[in-house]
Amino acid sequence: MLSRRIIPCLDVRDGKLTKGVKFKGNVDIGDPVEMARFYYEEGADEIVFYDITASSDRRDIMIDVVRRTAEKVFIPFSVGGGIRTVEDMRLALLAGAEKVSVNSAAVRNPGIIREGALAFGSQCVVLGMDVLKVDVTERIPSGYEIVIEGGRRPTGIDALWWAQEGERLGAGELCVNSIDADGTKAGYEMNLTRMISTGVGIPVIASGGAGNPEHMRAVLAEGRADAALIASITHYGEYTIREIKDYLNEQGVKTRMTW
Fold first, then answer.
1. Pseudo-torsion of CA 68, 74, 79, 83, nearest 10°?
2. Does a structural domain hold residue 257?
3. Catalytic amino acids?
4. Region for 36 from its dihedrals, namely left if φ exceeds 0, alpha if ψ lies in -120 to 50, beta otherwise
5. Which of 33, 25, 108, 124 is nearest to 76 (CA)?
6. Which residue ranges in the chain fall short of pLDDT 70?
7. Is the pTM of this model over 0.85?
8. Does some domain include residue 255?
9. Residue 256: inside a domain
10. Is 96 a domain residue?
11. Radius of gyration over alpha carbons of the chain, in Å?
């Protein structure tokens, strides 16, 4: 069995670490670079940064945060938010990121996925998907819709179709975030995660809803995810990375141990 990855997610707004629930009510909680360093020392496998208002505010990528993080963190990290062109991808990668995540920009211009994959390799391109559960319709047969601009704008795009299209265009990984579960700590959206994981042939990161290590075991085992994003439960000190990994390994879900 391949080792499953545990990936802290750092949402950034105006250069500060922030956290909300279902994409609302965000509160600033610290410095993202220092938190990234903390997670690196704790044994995280990777780190994800999202500038949560860059797309809706039409701002550029947070290159200063990327560069400062690369000076202090020596595990892979990806960056999303404000990446609209292949040049934006290049700047982020040159600043030290190992991967770039495209979300709203990819919906507006799907060609950016292929262009990025051709320029830098599929392993550098992550397709971020913010997903909302909706009624099943002819247009959205899966019952899950893609929403962009930080959860502000529905698109009418079916989530499963978009995941498969992202793979076809060259994305090397999908990060599937349930807006309904985000920040609730009530567990991942299992049906959504399993549907996407079994519907594509590239790695899937489950995001949204982690409240305890059992939630992570479930999404990595029954949900078939390759990695689990976490935020609130470690940001606020409820669990450590080591406690989570120890539990997962005891439950038969293999993770990479660094201690």
1. 70
2. no
3. 11, 130
4. alpha
5. 124
6. 1, 14-15, 18-29, 52-61, 258-259
7. yes
8. no
9. no
10. yes
11. 17
